[in-house]
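Notebook, bench 3.
Goal today: get a predicted structure for Protein DPCD from Paralvinella palmiformis so we can plan the truncation constructs. The sequence was checked against the plasmid map this morning, with no discrepancies at the termini. Length recorded as 215 residues. Pasting the sequence as submitted so the record is complete.
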Amino acid sequence: MNRVLLLTFVYKMSTAWLENLKSAQKTCLVQDDRKKIHFTFQDGTEMAEEYDINTGDLLGELRKWHKKGTLGGATKWEYEVGEDLMLAKPLLTEGLMESSSNPIFVRKDTKQTFQWRIRNLPYPIETYQVTVDAENRTITIRTSNKKYYKRFSIPDMDRIQAALKQDDLSIAYANNTLIVTYKKPKEVLDLEKAVQEELKKTKAMKDGDVECNPS
């Protein structure tokens, strides 16, 4: 697929995702300088996000999904951005405390980048090899000592079928934490801007929820 066709395809996918957001039932709440938005899509899938009320930025704490189970029952919330703080704490199971030294993989974005932090990795930066699989739109983290392996995708890129590039990937290491950063392409930045414009149309109340009519 040549570049023009590829960009046209990505644009169509971006438009489709934006229209999906517009048609979703939305509930809005402003609390503690955060704008909390709950989406219910036509297939029953739910998404919850939190935005900084002053900057409009998606907070690192939250984008999570709730999908119907295969038998129609309730499922747990799945975190796309941020983490479940309850699960982040060591769990006591049958008298045994879960190790607090296990690697913890968390996505925390910035305005211009996707970013993941893998805590509790005590190996020097030269130990890590982080590569892009462009064909499958995945990123793989592996260590030369074979102590850690992780393959993951970027849902934001998958939703618009955008390709990943090795040149847009970088890593850093500090305080036993590997930081993997991927530069957001223009298509994602444009989509995020359009989403923000759409969310400005939603009405929110500080003292309770209000239904936001689909645009």
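Helices lie at 3-23, 85-88, 155-159, 186-199. Residues 90-98, 208-215 have pLDDT under 50 and may be disordered.
Flagging this for group meeting.
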